[in-house]
Design brief:
- It is a single chain.
- With 326 residues, the chain is an all-alpha fold.
- It has a single domain, classed as Formate dehydrogenase/DMSO reductase fold.
- 78% of the residues lie in helices and 3% in strands.
- It has 14 helices and four strands.
- The strands form two sheets. It has a two-stranded antiparallel ribbon.
- Helix 4 crosses helix 5.
- The longest helix is centred in the middle third of the chain and has 31 residues.
- The radius of gyration is 20 Å and the shape is globular.
- 39% of the residues are buried.
């Protein structure tokens, strides 16, 4: 059996899981951020109702990403984890407190504001940390001898902070689009009014990130010059942005979320195309980081053709059963 395709298979599967996580958990983190921008108690209740059937299932994809990275690409895991110990711990605490807040706010009376704040702050911190980690990866991590060689606060740079803010805005765009899709009445109109400004913020951050990557990384610039087909991804972002704007103008409830997902997909593929075949930019490639063939083969039969399909199927069934307005 030819197994040379296994590293690419697992890299593709992990990339797919990352995108699914961003699209699904992104909107419920975004709704959590939006909940902190209104004092209307009825709006907050409706926001939580729009995510409560889905949020814990969405985070399963984050677990799958971590477990698959540990098993299929242990070198990447060994470099990434020490580089981001503090932000990962902060993100996990934020997600835990956020999950508790979603459940406790239903029963709380005197402490309702505390749990509402937990829903907002947990969502905001988790979103920011994820974006900051992506931004720091783009800047290249200090690696020596296959190990992380930086300090505990190496992840915190002006650019990573900008990326953290950008992803939080992007998740909020997904959240507002999800509210348009799943709610009706005054909250739906409230979400519609925020989509235009959120879209403008996302496009501005994407432009800054693109200019930074092309001007500071000669390898990225050379790759784009050599592979002009990569231009299709910024074009998709442009067209999807127009589609989202038209959807808002025409009050087409399904269009904004679909176009927001398309924007995220094109941005994700642009990032992957810029740094291919590196998993740690310009340091560790897919082939170098891959686990032994025996491990990859075992993972393929155990997780690749059983766990991932099962999770994908039950995720699809949940969203199908609970389709329509809240």
């Amino acid at each position: 059996m030819d197994v040379t395709w296994l590293p690419l298979f697992w890299a593709g599967l992990i990339a797919f899981a990352m995108f699914v996580y961003v699209v699904l958990d992104g909107y419920d983190l975004g709704i959590g951020i939006l909940s902190g921008t209104t004092r209307n108690e009825a709006y907050r209740d409706a926001m939580v109702n729009a995510v409560s059937p889905f949020w814990d299932g969405n985070e399963v994809w984050l677990v799958l990403i971590g477990a698959s990275l540990f098993g299929a690409f242990p070198m990447v895991y060994a470099i990434f984890l020490p580089a981001f110990y503090l932000p990962i711990a902060l993100m996990l605490l934020a997600l835990i407190f956020r999950g508790v807040a979603i459940e406790f706010r239903y029963h709380a009376k005197q402490m309702r504001r505390l749990w509402d704040s937990g829903f907002f702050l947990g969502s905001l911190i988790a979103s920011f940390v994820q974006g900051a980690a992506i931004g720091r990866m783009v800047q290249e991590l200090p690696v020596a001898g296959g190990q992380y060689a930086g300090s505990a606060f190496e992840w915190l740079t002006p650019f990573s902070v900008l990326c953290g803010i950008g992803l939080a805005i992007g998740y909020t765009l997904l959240g507002a689009a999800w509210l348009v899709l799943k709610t009706d009445g005054a909250l739906r109109d409230w979400a519609y009014r925020r989509l235009g400004r959120l879209l403008a913020g996302v496009l501005m951050i994407l432009l800054i990130v693109a200019v930074f990557a092309l001007t500071t990384h000669l390898q990225v610039r050379d790759r784009w010059l050599q592979h002009l087909w990569l231009v299709i991804f910024p074009l998709i972002i442009f067209l999807a942005s127009i589609g989202l704007w038209l959807g808002v103008r025409r009050r087409s409830d399904r269009v904004p979320y679909a176009m927001a997902v398309l924007i995220f997909l094109a941005a994700f593929l642009s990032l992957a195309g810029s740094f291919w075949p590196y998993m740690i930019p310009f340091t560790v490639t897919i082939e170098t980081a891959a686990a032994p063939v025996q491990s990859l083969r075992f993972l393929f039969y155990g997780a690749g053709i059983i766990v991932f399909p099962v999770v994908l199927i039950y995720t699809g069934v949940v969203y199908w059963v609970l389709r329509g307005k809240v």
